[in-house]
Design brief:
Shape: elongated
Structural class: alpha+beta
Order of helices and strands: HEEHEEHHEE
Strand order of the largest sheet: 3-4-5-6
Strand content: 25-35%
Radius of gyration: 23 Å
Amino acid sequence: MKTRTRNLIVWSSVFAAAFLLSLILFLARSGRTERYILFFPSEITQEWTGEPREIYFTRDREAALLALLKEIALGPIGLRLEPTVPKGTGIRSVLLRDGTVYIDFTSSIVLNQPTILLSFEQMLAGIRKSVLYNFPSVDKVVMYVEGSPTDTIALP
């Protein structure tokens, strides 16, 4: 009986120690961030300039892409940089399939377009540059506005 009780205590202690170690490691990693480089046009030269951002880490690549796109929509922090997309641009959906990212924007990206200095094609190029730079496993970026392919969009 003593051996049985001793084994129960030993195994319970081993289990409790493993559980506590797992809990500590989980809590230590949950606030981790990942560094991304977002590209914004320079106010003076209009050349793409990289700006580092810390974004909360997630293993879900679609969620990470959505977070990156939201940061692009927020605009640059640097003083001499211009926004890539108009203020109020929303992201309807992001899908990652077989190395291709499909991004669907709200119509704000087209309707508010005169408020920034870039052409529509330059905006899309900037978004594509940020996505491809930060996600090397992505081969292609396909963008839509309210479900319509961007190459069929007639600007107002």
